[in-house]
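Continuing the series of single-chain predictions for the mutant panel. This is the parent chain; the variants come on the following pages.
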Amino acid sequence: MYKQKIEKIEHAANRERKSRSNMPAKAAKTTTSPATKTKLRTAGDVISRLRWSEEEDCTAILMGYDDRINGPMEKCIADYKSIDDGGDIPQHRIQYFRRAEVNNGARMNMSRAILWDREGRVDRIFGSGLGSDVPASKHTTQLAFDAIANMKRIAEEKEILRQEKEKRRARRMKKVGLNQASMTRDGTSSTIATSNNTSKNPQSLHRCQWTSASSFYFDRETSQWVQDKADKTNATANGKSETSHQLRLVTWNVLFDLFEDAILFQEDTPEKRWDLLIKLLGDTNADLIALQEVTPQFVDQICGSA
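Parent structure:
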């Protein structure tokens, strides 16, 4: 029995070997390395080449970029400034460069007018990327037409605003008068003759007519504003003139210390400093006081001491 089992096992193993030898050989795997892509030259390289090239006129080359507010826009590369030089267009937003001349705006001509295409990896300046024989991508071509439409729309809107501004200015000038403007001061009227400068530049005229206004002063005895009946100047002993009443104006920066009071004033509290400030302002005998950086706590304290 044992010998028969061994023979059956050997017979099955031989049959398995024969079946494997009759199977077709598997094809060997071939690994192909992907084609290496040529690096596309940057937008900065293109700008430098076009600006210093003797064959190309940089004033006839436009760069298309993506504006965050207006969308696709164009700008002459002669007017371009980098971020380091104070410009506002980063190079990663530049999408293409193209020639300004496009015959009849045809789409095929626009595709050939594009010299550098970021998305399509087309470079007709250096030959980098996919080369110069590849047409520009449809997306970039559409961006160019969208930029032209946006530039036209913005120019029309600026022209409308300019016309409206001129109309408003004409209405103001008609109301004031182009030849003369009457100005009244201290109850007497005087005529301002238009000089050669004002005739050449009508904007130098007053936009509104002057009218007389009475002056007031604060009477501390009655705590009321009293109209100054004199409204005239009184001659002093030295021959100079001065107004009959003076207005004293005091301004003070309180210093905003709502959150940093412990750091700015480690020994004195803000309330102590405010008491000294309120006393100082009261000693100035001012008619009008203007304060900056006032906190709600200071308002409560100054109102409580009034």
